[in-house]
Every structure is written in structure tokens, then in C-alpha cells.
Amino acid sequence: MLAITKHTNWYFEGVKSTPREMQVCILSDLHLGTFGCHAEEISDYLRSINPEILVLNGDIIDIWQFKKSYFPPQHMQVIRDILKLNTQGTQVYYITGNHDEALRRYSGTQLGNIRLDDKLILELDGKKVWIFHGDVFDATTKGSARLLAQLGGKGYDLLIWLNHNINLLLSLMGREKMSLSKKVKESVKKAVSWINNFEQTAAELAIEEGYDVVVCGHIHQPQQRIIKTEKGEVTYLNSGDWIENLTALEYNDGNWKIYEHPQQNRKKLPRSTEYLTELERLKKPEIPDVLSHHIAAFIATKTAI
């Protein structure tokens, strides 16, 4: 069930909103540091919520595609928004994925209200919830196949760039936007079968381990459904991504729902002074240069190990 929650946008001039309260919010596959990342929409969403727990379920910073020359202020702003929620009392869990696997060396690290780990188990209203990225089920992210997956990631980024420009043209023509990658996935039977196998494998393992809910990311396919086997049943959830679907999982009062962020032409409205001021601050040399230098140095060190 796909639910769309409407809200106003904090970075438009004269438009304010009251953050929505919720117990748990799960985001995955932001892919910060890539062209396809919808960083402004992510900031918009983060400013619209006030969760008790925020779970970042893998592929948050795309270390596979990371380039020191490309980490725009809007992407840095997302990190600032996450840290701001944390300082306001939100417990943040960063679960590693395959694109940020360099961080797995530090699994178990706790910095204040931020915890880095490979998986997370929560008990919500008496139900056991198992959260992990899901790349453990993907053979293409391991061994020699990992290089092909990384090359595929670059091809995917190029496809998103091409799609972006095609949609700009379609908008000018008054035509409906399209998703090239979705059409490719839907047209390839192997891709559809792989997604189904991924969901079934995650569900079967969760049932065997006695979980009531299993939450994944990785496949960029938002989903909420009950999967039944001979041994029992489990609620399977996938938080989707912020490249194409712009989705998150939200939990409140015993209920899960998929949030879908509205995609629209944001250039029609002027940016708010608050948003522009923060971006301008991030453009100052001493801030992005220092941060990007440390991020680049960290990634180079860890990927070499």
C-alpha cells in the first residue's frame, strides 16, 4: 500500500510547516555524492518530520561513486539536517550498505545518539523488527562480480542523468515524466524475478529467526506486504530510494506506511531566505573543502584496506 502524505516545503519563501511526529522513520539508498540523488527533496522531507528514531538503512553516502569534485552544498545540507534531528533528541541508527561498506569496519560505534551498525533489531509494540540493508542476498556485490556492479553503478548514474534531461524536455512539451530505469527493470524478466526472489529470501529468513517484521533497502523498490510460508508469515517492508521513488517508511501507533514524496518542478517558487543562507554558508571554502578532504581521505584509506 503506497501512501502519499502532503506537506509544505520549508525551503520555499513564505511557506512553513509543523514537523510531523512519528515513532520511527526509515530511509535508505540516498546515494549522496551522485548526480541522481534528490538532495533538496531529502532535506525537505527531513525538515517535515520529528521522529523518535531515524534509521538510515544503507547506501546513504555513495562511496563507490564518491568524487571529491562532486559533493554539492545541497548534499552536505542533508547531513546537517540529519545531525540537527539528532541534536534535537532523535536517536539515529546508520546501517551500512554495499555502497558505504567502507564504514563496516566501524560497526558497533556509538557517538552520542548516533550508532553505526550492520543491522538493527527493534521491538515495537510487542513485535520484533529486523532491519538491514539487504546486499547480503546480492551475489553481484561480492568478489569479482563487485567490479561489474560498480561499473553498473556508473551506468545507472548516467541513465539517471539522461532521464533527467529527457524529463526536462517532456515538461516543456507538457508531457508526463517517465522513468527509464523503471521501464528497463519492468521489461527485463530476470530483474523482476530477482526482486521477487530477494523479497522471498528475506521473508523466509526472518520467519525462521522469529521476527514479525523485516525491513530492507538495496533494490530501490518500495514495498509493504505480508509474505506467508509453511513456517509462518512476516511483514516485508522496503524503504525504496531517493533516486527515483523518493520514499520512506514511517511507523506510528502500531502501523507502518510507505511515504512517497511529491515530485514537482521546484524552480517555480522562490527559495526561502533560511534555505539560501544555509547553502551559502556551505559554499564557503573553509567548510566544504575541509569536510570533503576528510571524507575523501577516509574513503581512500578504508577502500585500500
Instruction: Specify the biggest β-sheet.
Output: 8 strands, mixed
What CATH calls the topology is: Purple Acid Phosphatase, chain A, domain 2
Report the C-alpha radius of gyration, rounded. Answer: 19 Å
Distance between the termini: 43 Å
Beta strand %: 15-25%
Element-by-element helix/strand order: EEHEHEEEEEHHHEEEEEHH
User: How many helices in DSSP terms?
Assistant: 7
CATH class: Alpha Beta
Helix content: 25-40%
Describe what this molecule looks like in 3D.
- The protein has a single domain (20-303), classed as Purple Acid Phosphatase, chain A, domain 2 (4-Layer Sandwich).
- The protein is built from 7 helices and 13 strands.
- The chain has helices at 39-46, 73-87, 145-172, 180-187, 189-208, 273-283, 286-303; strands at 2-3, 20-27, 49-57, 91-95, 110-111, 114-117, 119-124, 127-132, 213-216, 223-229, 232-238, 247-252, 255-260.
- The protein has an 8-stranded mixed beta sheet, covered by helices on one side.
- The longest helix is centred in the middle third of the chain and has 28 residues, at 145-172.
- Residues 1-10, 139-152, 265-269 and 285-290 have low confidence and may be disordered.
